[in-house]
Write a structure and sequence with these properties.
Layout: H1 5-59, H2 62-161, E1 169-170, E2 177-178
Antiparallel strand pairs: 1-2
Amino acid sequence: MAVSRALRRLLRIRDLEEEQSRIALESAIGDLRQLEHAQAATVERDRRGRRLFDSSVHTGDLPDRLAGLVEQHAADRAQRALSPRILDAEQDVAGLREDYLDRRVERRQAETLVKESEASEAIDADRKSQQGLDDWFRNRLHRVNLEIKDAQAADSANASGGVSRRVTGPDRATGREVT
C-alpha cells in the first residue's frame, strides 16, 4: 500500500500553513523595523532641535530658538506615539514567531510520518521480493528433485527390463550438477 493520500495531503497542508506563518512573521518583522527606523529618526530630530536651540542661545537668534523648541516637542510627541506601537509590534512578532515554530514542528511531524510510511513500504516490498525469490528457488529444487526421482524410478523399472537411462540434477549438498 502506498503512502496514503491523506498523509500526503496533510503534509502539503502543513507545508502551506508553515509558509503562511513565515510570510506573516516576515511582514511583522518588517513593520517592526519600520517603527524602529521611525523612532531612530525621531531621536535624530530631537538632537537637531537641541543643536538648533543651543546654537541660537549663543547667537541670540529667536526664530532658531523657537524652531529648536518646536522640533524637540515634535520629537517628544512622536516618541510617545511610537513607543506603545513598538511594544505592540514586538509582542506581535513574538506571537507570530511562536506560531511559525509550532507550524514548523507540525510540518516536520507530518514529514516524519510520510517518511516512516515510505520506509515501511520499502521494507515490505523487499520482503515480498525476497519471498518470491525464495518460493521460485524452492519450486525449482522441488521440480528437479521430482525429475530425479522419476528418472530413478524409470531406471529401476528399466533395470529389470534391461534399459538404462542417465539422470542429471543438482547434488543437494554441493549444489553441483550430478550425472
